[in-house]
## 1
Amino acid sequence: MASNFLVTTAIPAPGLQLLRDAGRVTVLPEPPDYGTLAALCASGEFDVVVTQLRDVIDAPLLADARVRGVSNFAVGYNNIDVDAATRHGIMVGNTPGVLTDATADIAMLLILGTARRVVEADRLVRDGQFHGWEPELLLGRDVSGAVLGLAGFGRIARATARRALGFGMEVLFSPRPPGDRAVSDDELGEFAGKVRQVRWEELVKRSDFLSMHVPLTDQTRHLVDADVLRRMKPDAILINTARGPVVHETALVEALRTGLIAGAGLDVFEDEPRLAPGLAELPNTVLLPHVGSATVPVRNEMARLSALNAMAIAEGRMPPNAVNPLVCA
Ligand code: GLV
């Protein structure tokens, strides 16, 4: 029998085409609210639901769901209660690997953009305030020679390290903040001798740019809170391309306002798409609408991977990228 796929938000054509070739595809006309999505998942009409980060797939929804699997159009899957899915025998797939470089590019862009005040500079030109070269117009910071602290040392952090080393930055990392874990030279591979592991407390104190590269978990929620912001250098800049709730956004606004730290470059927010009050008014920020993976080839590849995951799950096969492979074992 042909498989039935529910796609909560249209994904790029290469993925949709694969799904259409494999079965019946229902693409919702607009992102569903929680109740609508729960009812659709419980209807028994669909084998697999292809979800977005904004779709909350929690334990109550999964308890009533009559689907074989959830294929998330993202590498992160904090929107899905994976333990509950596993308990109910529901497979979860994601799209790792293909967005590493694109997201590291955005981390580097935020480092450069905050250091060189690109938003303020752009606004000044558009506002007709550029009156010619001036010796002290919009002076920024040097990136070369500055200390980049990477919170986390997974794929995207390593790709960011590679870029930062090319820009002459000194790269420190803390692999599993706030806890600790020793990374051997073997594990460091190409980075051995080029980057240095430090404890989270030291990373916070020493970074000129502190960049978040951790998944959102109970341990990393509000990893950067008022206390951490107080311990950063007053001229430090916070970069977040990971997940918004890793940073206590209200505390960040306060820290930026009072000069506890110098700036922030953010691609993710605590309660997307909303921003903490006051954040948008701060000049010392660069704010992006969660576009880490937003290039045409990367989004096409994510669409393809999420479709391949969905098709495998619908046929009872192990998906190419399974988050909870034991369900299929
Ligand atoms: C984007 O944030 C992703 O997890 O793919």
Note: The pocket of glyoxylic acid is lined by residues 74-76, 99, 292-293 (CB under 6 Å).
## 2
Amino acid sequence: MAFELPALPYSTSTLAAAGMSQETLELHHGKHHQAYVTALNGFVEKNDALKDKSLEDIILLAAGQADLAPVFNNAGQHWNHILFWQALSPKGGGMPGSLEKKIGEDFGSVEAFKDAFKTAATTQFGSGWAWLVLGDDGKLKVTKSANAGNPLAAGQGKALLGLDVWEHSYYVDFRNRRPDYVANFLDRLANYEFAEAELARV
Ligand code: MN3
């Protein structure tokens, strides 16, 4: 079974009022994410060791293997973007009570969580991601990763939210202002209800 580009859970014009334009979503989902899926399928087709493996298994198999770096990059980016689209909502930014409580317990306050996330997302030099993760110790934490890296490959726990900080994710709408893109995500786009549902599934 070839991997497929998942449909967005909203139309490409739906997030514009919350700061992510139709142009960004059409390029980011339709071109960038599609390119990762197409490349990944090309690698799987040519490598029997990858055939019939889940996306997660391919990521774990390829992580840290120099000869499989292109496989890791495209598989990782496919996984990262699947989570990213779910981490956005036209009604984002509102935090459900049980997640707010857990964030308060583990970070001290919602503001402290947002500060930690902003720091991670803005200090990731070059391309990469910032994450809200439930660690194996049961505590929430913020992490960042370069390029196609993610908490799955790094063994950091379960990712609840991921924010793409590659320039292609913000240059159309925010130009070079990555901090504004990150703040807009946290306050207006972040699907905290999704994060809470993922937390409840653990
Ligand atoms: Mn991207």
Note: The domain at 97-200 is CATH 3.55.40.20 (minor pseudopilin epsh fold).
